[in-house]
Every structure is written in C-alpha cells, then in structure tokens.
Amino acid sequence: MDKTAWLWHMRFGHLNFQSLRKLVVEEMVTGLPVIVVPDNVCEGCLVGKQSKTPFKSHMHMRAKDVLHVVYSDVCGPFEVLSVGQNR
C-alpha cells in the first residue's frame, strides 16, 4: 500500500487518483511525487457518494377507521415562553 498516494489524495480534498496523476504528468504542480493508483477505495469518498432517498410526496392513509390513528402533543406546555410568547 502506497501511503504517499493516500496522503496526497487527502491533502487535495479527496481528489481522484487519475487527476492526481495528471497533475504530475502534465507538470501542473511542483513537488508532487508520481502517484500510483491503488486498488482499494477510500472510505470517506464512499460515504460522501451515498445518496439519500427522497421523501415521498404523497403518503397513503394509515388509518382504516375513524380515530384509528390519533396524533397528540405528548410534551405538554413548556415553562419557557417561545419568541411568540407561546407555551
């Protein structure tokens, strides 16, 4: 495992290894060693590329009968007033 490749990958903000290699080959930067592209994948890059599923725009009703699902305020009144002077 080449630690210098991973070090420069992190220093350049997780820039891909092909672009790091291009920086060296085309002499765009000075002092950067020749990067050997590793076989494994960066964990941080994988986590950053994961996408979340969007919220559904329309939800089906869960209640089968009247008052089957009841929503209530379980917190009760607060002692500290809000900006609008509500509890």
Q: How would you portray this structure in words?
A:
The structure is a single chain. The protein has a domain at 3-49. The protein has 3 helices and no strands. The protein has helices at 3-11, 17-25, 43-49. The protein is elongated, with a radius of gyration of 27 Å.
Can I get a quick summary?
With 87 residues, the protein is mainly α. It is built from 3 helices and no strands. It has helices at residues 3-11, 17-25, 43-49.
What is the strand and helix layout of this fold?
Layout: H1 3-11, H2 17-25, H3 43-49
- Quote the average pLDDT: 83
N-C termini distance: 60 Å
Order of helices and strands: HHH
Estimated share of beta-strand residues = under 5%
The proportion of residues forming helix, as a percent range, comes to 25-40%
**What does the radius of gyration come to?**
27 Å
Low-confidence residue ranges = none
Tell me the structural class: mainly alpha
Count of alpha and pi helical runs: 3
Let me know the number of strands. Answer: 0
- Specify the overall morphology: elongated
The major pleated sheet works out as: none
Please give a handful of descriptors for the protein shown.
elongated, 87 residues, mainly alpha, single chain
